[in-house]
Amino acid sequence: MKVEQISIFLENKSGRLAEVAGVLAKAEINIRALSLADTTDFGILRLIVNDTEKAKQVLKDNGFTVGKTEVIGVEVADKPGGLSEILRVMKDHNINVEYMYAFVQKSAGNAVIIFRFDELEKAIDVLRKSGIRIMRGEDICAL
Amino acid sequence: MIWNEEFETLPREALEALQLKRLKNLVERVYTAVPYYHKKMDEAGVKPADIKSLADLVKLPFTTKEDLRLNYPFGLFAVPFETVVRIHASSGTTGKPTVVGYTKNDIESWAELMARTLSAGGAHKGDVVHNAYGYGLFTGGLGAHYGAERLGAAVIPISGGNSKRQIMIMQDFGSTVLLCTPSYALNLADVMKEMRVDPKTLKLRVGLFGAEPWSENMRQEIEARLNIMAIDIFGLSEVMGPGVASECIEEKHGLHVFEDFFIPEIIDPETGLPVPPGEQGELVFTTLTKEAFPVIRYRTKDISRLITEPCSCGRTFYRMQRITGRTDDMLIIRGVNVFPSQIEHVLMSIEGVEPHYQIIVDRQASLDVMEVQVEVSESIFSDEIKVLEKLGKKIEREIKDLLGVSCKVKLVEPKTIQRSEGKAKRVIDNRKL
């Protein structure tokens, strides 16, 4: 149900993002989804990759501070109202979104939204009961 | 003008006789009243009776900040606590401050010393003294305050901060003498410019600046921009507070040490031995009259040298050259002493934070700014911005609580802080004095 996401601490310096990408490329790791959150001084790069453990290791070996978090991926129809429905359900159950990002699947015509909720288990439960499809971690990594 | 003609112009011989009399009395007093000094003197194999001349001073053991820390808070007080009427404190090297006490007589002496200082700087009865040194545990505010009252001046106890209001009060109250740190004086000049206040329209005539190191260049800048005479004054809380030494307006070259109250020495910081006359070294003070908190051969860690040539102002006291550096890593940020070890202490007290940090000091708009860079280790890293921002704010708050100086915390990637020979460089001071 849950997807493993790695997060990387980046200082706001030119070239840092390029270095991360370079390290992953060299290790032949494929990035499935990503988001970059930025503040004045630093940024947090969040990635879902095809091989979490390996990615984490190579980044650590290259001196990056790396974290691992569990998030969930939800599949919605790539049409107006898809996101709105999920967020309404979450709001009704007082579940807070810490952050989210989305990408569109080319083949299936669906959008995948990655969510980080404050109460992960409760969120999974609510989504299920509302009939919203939660993607399996391995499916996302294998996309 | 010389405030106390009798003592400030004593012939050297008479002065040294007075110093010896006071020194003997001091040593006798601390040996009897302070167990710690008693023990240290016993260990050094010296008894009060061994002090027969001023040259015997070197037989006495040094007192260091570490001795003060070990005796926190009142262990080195030499009088019954009921006779202490004032307590001040300054930064210690870790979490605990350095505490000093004063009897009623000490406060009287201090007022005399600051009256001498103000007078040496050209202030007099009838002046309006704008005292922008901080009031509180810091000795600057109250020390200068009592001296200005003793002088017969009208004191504005405005303390630090809120520059616009300071300038309004200078205009409206007709301040003639400014007391603050040299960097704050420049900040006031900046704010005056912003407010389109021409310093020439103010009644300010002279400023006495201390509590942080500054330079001849800064003096010229302050004098030109504020249209005043700028005088360097010196003091430290462990010895008294402001009023230990002061320049005279006649020469503005070296600070006369009030030698009837304090004996200055210059030593080699490595060997502890006196340096040849006139050479640079670490400044050491012995307090001759202090009752509540006397110190014997207190190592200031400030670098200076003594000028023994007579001065045209008529004072017979030797002069110390303006402080040119430190033997340790102490920083002075907006007049407040800051030790990197204090910052480390704060970081260590926060769970998960590793003491990989660097302090970057700069001067922006004439004010010192301190940035503390902290490396983000895995134990504090979070994928949520708010968690990291909260951590940064927490460190900022705790540093402010401990030091009384605000700083900006910047989270940086691991290993970005320069490590030289395996040891991290803790401080980068970009200020140009």
CATH class of the largest domain in chain B: Alpha Beta
Query: How many angstroms separate the termini of chain A?
Result: 15 Å
Helix content of chain A: 25-40%
CATH topology of the largest domain in chain A: Alpha-Beta Plaits
How can the largest sheet of chain A be summarized? 6 strands, antiparallel
| Largest beta sheet: strand ordering of chain B | 4-3-5-6-7-8-9-14-13
Rg calc of chain A: 16 Å
What report would you give on this structure?
The complex is a heterodimer of chains A (143) and B (433). Chain A has 143 residues and is α+β, with helices and mostly antiparallel strands. Chain A has two domains: 2-69, VC0802-like; 70-141, Alpha-Beta Plaits (2-Layer Sandwich). Chain A has helices spanning 16-26, 52-61, 82-92, 120-129, 137-141, and strands at residues 2-11, 31-38, 42-49, 66-77, 97-104, 110-117. In chain A, strands 2-3-1-4-6-5 form a six-stranded antiparallel sheet. In chain A, β5 (97-104) and β6 (110-117) form a beta hairpin. The longest helix of chain A is centred in the N-terminal third of the chain and has 11 residues, at 16-26. Chain A starts with a strand and ends with a helix. Chain B contains eleven helices and 23 strands. In chain B, α9 links the parallel β6 (206-209) and β7. The mean pLDDT of chain B is 93. With 433 residues, chain B is of the alpha/beta class. Chain B folds into two domains: 69-328, Rossmann fold; 333-429, 2-Layer Sandwich (GMP Synthetase, Chain A, domain 3). In chain B, the strands form six sheets. Chain B has a nine-stranded mixed sheet with strand order 4-3-5-6-7-8-9-14-13. A four-stranded antiparallel sheet of chain B has the order 10-11-12-15. Chain B has a four-stranded mixed sheet with strand order 20-19-18-23. The chains are: A alpha+beta (143), B alpha/beta (433). At the A-B interface, β1, β3 and β4 of A face α11 and β20 of B.
